[in-house]
Amino acid sequence: MTRRTIFMVAGLALLAAAPILFPFTQFVLTIAIAKGFAALGVALLLRAGLISLGHAMFYAIGAYAAAFLSARLGITDIFAILVFSVAISALSGVLIGLFLVRYRAIFFAMLNLAVSMVAYSLASKAYGITGGTDGLRVSVPTILGMSVEKSSFDVVLYYLVLVLMVGVGILMHRYMRSPLGHALSAVHSNEIRLEYLGVSARSTLLAAYTISATLAGIGGAIAAVSIGHVLPEFAFWTESGHLVLTAVLGGIAGIAGPFLGSIFLELIHTFAVGYAAEAWNMIIGIAMLVVIFFLPRGLFGLVERITGGKSRKGEAKL
Predict the structure, then answer these.
(1) pTM of the predicted model, to two decimals?
(2) What's the Cα-to-Cα distance from 269 to each of 35, 47, 183, 275, rounded to whole Å?
(3) What pLDDT does residue 252 have?
(4) What are φ and ψ of residue 76, in 5° steps?
């Protein structure tokens, strides 16, 4: 067993024990991991050199899909909600990606931002469908047909989210090691050479964009059932900026990076608001500056230093 594996197992054990030792962390960590999924989607595109300033749109799509299935169609099973949200997010990723993956650099970033703000406006104005600015309420889901109290459901949801994080992490690890994953990195380094080799850069990016949207949708669905309410603000541009910041802060070299960044930000935010309500913005800003100046590869770079997981060529072992 490598030092990296031991470190990851210890981290998961710590996450599993955290709600038992400190019950208030259960909700905070659930939301942090939910946003970690979305940040992982952003990090995936960053590996291809593309910045999405509108990925909160897919986070909101996943959340609204969960709310629609529960409130409008009366299907409340948590597993059905997650599957439905994944399907809708993936479909949205394909349809929007067909248009956006033709663009690069600032045009890609700004078009993502523009489309997400259109989605935000539609969610805010379509009162008959989305509930407008009041949003939609999400009732407590059932678990394989069993109705449980909200407190019991939150416990089950937390450990389900942990299992989901591990499963998605393994799948993403295999994806990044696959020819399609290597082609994604090649889009950033030399797209023209990739085309000469007979690999379609547009198809590679469309696949990555769809996976990225799906990851954000998973996060949105988890947030919806955890909070119990969905609002148009889920798709607002500040949320998209937050996801980019989380991905960069955590580091894009490893699958665990965005989750580390999200958990770090949510914990700092919770403690700063609780103990220094007048200065929490400053505390978060200072914490971020420290990470940026001393950990240029993000928090995942710290993991690399501890575990010695960085290769001689400077590329991280995912």
Answers:
(1) 0.88
(2) 14, 27, 37, 10
(3) 78
(4) -115, 5
